Amino acid sequence: GNKKALFIGINYTGTKAELKGCINDVKNVSQLVCQRFGFQNCLYLTDEQQDSNKKPTYNNIIEGMKWLVQGAKSGDSLFFHYSGHGGTARDADGDEVDGYDETILPLDYETAGQILDDVIYENLVTPLPQGCRLTAIFDSCHSGTVLDLPYTYQCDGQVEVIENDVRKEVFKKAFSIVGSLITGDQAKIASSLLSLFDGSINFAQLAGGGGAQNSAANQNAINKRKHDADVIQFSGCRDNQTSADAKINNEATGAMSYALITVLNQNPNMTYTQLLSSIRQVMKQKNFSQIPQLSTSHPMNMNEVF
Fold this sequence. Notes:
It is a single chain. The chain is an alpha/beta fold. It has helices at about 20-35, 60-70, 110, 115-125, 165-175, 175-180, 205, 210-225, 255-265, 270-285; strands spanning about 5-10, 40-45, 75-85, 85-90, 100-105, 115, 135-140, 150-155, 160-165, 230-235, 245-250, 250-255, 295. The chain is globular.
């Protein structure tokens, strides 16, 4: 199939929101993606570009997303990489559990506004046909669920799935139970808590009552986000964490991008489980506090090669 990639890196140069490592991230990740995985058809939106159509403004980013998915068919591989500020905006349509939409901040966010996760989902995920694969990488604050995908994998050997639209409730109520899982400990979490095979979790029990009504609402949220195409999102941090802008070999780099490049350069043929575990290890060694996350559009075989 065809291979297309969209890379967005925003340093917000000269503004109060300036970041150091985002354009470097794009250069490093794109080098890996193009050389190692053979992506030829690539679009770059960075704030150092002279061409006004290539600057990462709100409109250009949306146009870039449309370009990426345009003409996508079964067997195609699409790659999306965003490095820049992420944020949260009050949820207007009531579809987010914590009352906030996760967002990304285009270069002109002060005038054009933030790009909401619902808008990203609509432009990047909704148009995809079955059998097409989109891999998305976000290295930004609040990027834990920016693609609005229903399943999140916390995997260290054991693959665990938390359905995203109820995840925050679950994290609050069951933090002590999943604490060991979230910190990447090998401790086995009660299998009744999280079940990979049908993606179902007994949330009523976790959320303390409100059973049937509760799970119907959850199922609704999940059905809304399910998608037949393979959509895979790696993100630099969970919704309540802040992405580390790290210096690596004296180059400012986002922690997620750095870890991904390091791991894939060591071994390009990893399964998703191995990849997530290895990314975690690299981040631990470098003392980054954030926990990388992997989210998908439907329950996936995590032993598949990346």
